[in-house]
Design goal:
507 residues; alpha/beta; Glucose Oxidase, domain 1; eight-stranded mixed beta sheet; 44% helix; elongated; binds phosphoenolpyruvate; binds magnesium ion
């Protein structure tokens, strides 16, 4: 397994989702340009630089297509804003060097735009990019040196203008800031540049690290293992033949509505795991009811007459959220359902939002499940809360050994409608080894893990209830065959793995 896996919002066009390349880390704001008496840069230089930038961006707009054109034109207009130039001038007269004056003035304008909200707020991020480009231009430094080797750009944030100016060798990008509806995302998709945005912790990536960027699932693998790279390469190289039948439905693990779109193109016949936490990550406050309804509706709309299994927010140690009080005990402290139960407004709002979205798309079958359930009584509490909504089925994830004993399973299947097995966690808790230390998918194919999975499936068959598998090994062909033979009702894996899996499992 990779040294580390980070998650964010994947931005992928239908056919370009995965890139493997070395990281190129971009450090913004490092240039200082002196304008002390007798030194290099005066106001006239700044004025000329702004004008030249404007011309350059107009040329880029001319060479672009689709929505990029409008975005670039708006940027060009901002560069000749009189108020902006007056602000830079005032700052330089007060003694700021040219770079600091440009950066400060653009930042002030960005704040003004951000305060206006909506469309203008989205544009505010663009200004930071133009400021840095203007400074590089003034200093006569190339914004980014050209290289032949394919690279993935790692940055705190990137504006649409930055994207229009990327060197040819940049094959994808990862940013700490930004979201799926930003103009940067719009431009990335328009230019078929896979990206993962809003990645908390992307600062750990070093120049030269090997990065596997999966924009379809929003995952970033840092220094992935040979196995992981081989699996992904096979998936990329495989053409989807949707006419191939498989013994059980192949569903996709997705983190957003956008990714749902890519999953359909990859042949998913539904969503086996909707990781709703991606909507909550990296935020100070929980997303509002309306925002959740909007996002859930967009996903359900894509899967009309198909199944979507939504998992309630799953907190993890590596993705703590400031608005949630952690709960639970021992190894499971701070994770899953216990933490959700300790935060009733969050879980209730989420279920209400799912129910509302479902009422708009009744043709989509919506099953809802709780993450990291540890005891029967937790499962009962969840079902009690959830049954007041009209979800098609209610279930739980089985991903800890305490819930996977024959006695507990036979009681569990009496109360739930279905179970989904999370082998990523199950493997780490059964084998008592952190999941970050698994170097390949094969590590989880351990006899103890497989026999635990077998007993869960067997209990489901005895009870006549579906058991789906949604850990990463569900996407590994040999393990997938075992699970089908054992009687799993469906398999769910990252969309990028589905085409190759379909081919291997075809009957
Ligand atoms: C799992 O644990 O197998 C699972 C699918 O959940 P996650 O990877 O989101 O913890
Ligand atoms: Mg899990």
């Amino acid at each position: 397994m990779s040294e580390r896996v980070l998650v964010g919002t994947g931005v992928a066009s239908a056919d370009d989702g995965v890139v493997i390349a070395k990281a190129r880390v971009k450090i913004p704001g490092s240039i200082v340009l002196s304008n002390q008496p007798g030194e290099r840069f005066n106001l006239l230089d700044v004025k000329v630089a702004l004008q030249q930038m404007r011309e350059q961006i107009e040329i880029e707009a001319f060479d672009s297509h689709g929505e990029s054109v409008e975005i670039l034109r708006a940027m060009a207009i901002m560069l000749s804003d009189k108020e902006l130039f007056e602000e830079i001038k005032a700052r330089m007269i007060e003694g700021s060097d040219a770079a600091t004056a440009i950066r400060g003035s653009f930042a002030k304008f960005a704040r003004k735009l951000a305060d206006l909200g909506g469309y203008f707020a989205e544009r505010s991020n663009d200004l930071t990019g133009i400021a840095e480009r203007t400074i590089s231009h003034l200093a006569n430094e190339p914004a980014d040196e050209a290289e032949d080797e394919k690279k993935i750009l790692i940055a705190e944030s990137l504006s649409p203008v930055d994207l229009s100016n990327l060197p040819e060798n940049i094959a994808g990008f990862i940013t700490q800031q930004g979201g799926v509806s930003s103009h940067t995302a719009v431009m990335a998709r328009a230019n078929k540049l896979p990206a993962v945005m809003g990645v908390v912790g992307s600062g750990v990536i070093k120049d030269g690290d090997t990065i596997l960027l999966d924009a379809t699932s929003g995952q970033v693998f840092i220094n992935p293992s040979q196995d992981e790279m081989a699996n992904y390469r096979a998936a990329i190289a495989t053409e989807v033949d949707l006419s191939l039948e498989t013994p059980v439905p192949l569903l996709a693990n997705v983190g957003s509505a956008i990714e749902g779109g890519s999953a359909i193109k990859a042949g998913a016949s539904g969503v086996g795991l909707y990781r709703t936490e991606l909507l909550f990550l990296g935020r100070k406050d929980a997303p509002s009811f309306d925002e959740q309804v909007f996002e859930y509706s967009r996903l359900l709309a894509r899967f009309k007459n198909k199944l979507v299994i939504a998992r309630l927010l799953d907190l993890d140690f590596d993705k703590p959220l400031p608005f949630l009080k952690p709960a639970g005990s021992g190894d499971y402290f701070g994770r899953g359902l216990a933490t959700l139960m300790a935060n009733p407004e969050v879980i209730e709002t989420q279920m209400q939002a799912l129910a509302r979205a479902s009422s708009y798309y009744p043709e989509t079958e919506l099953w809802v499940m709780a993450p990291m359930v540890v005891t029967l009584s937790e499962a009962e509490q969840f079902l009690e809360m959830a049954k007041q909504y009209d979800f098609d089925k209610l279930g739980v994830m089985v991903e800890v050994p305490e819930l996977a004993t024959p006695q507990v399973l036979s009681e569990l299947f009496k109360i739930v409608d279905f179970v989904s097995i999370g082998t990523n966690d199950l493997a780490q808790y059964v084998l008592k080894r952190p999941r970050s230390t698994f170097r390949s998918l094969s590590d989880a194919k351990h006899p103890e893990v497989i026999s635990t999975v077998a007993s869960i499936i067997e209990a489901g068959i005895t009870a006549g209830k579906p058991v789906s598998l949604c850990g990463e090994i569900a996407g590994e062909p040999e393990a997938a065959k075992w699970f089908i033979d054992l009687g799993a009702s469906s398999l769910s894996a990252s969309g990028a793995l589905l085409p190759a899996l379909r081919q291997k499992l075809a009957v």
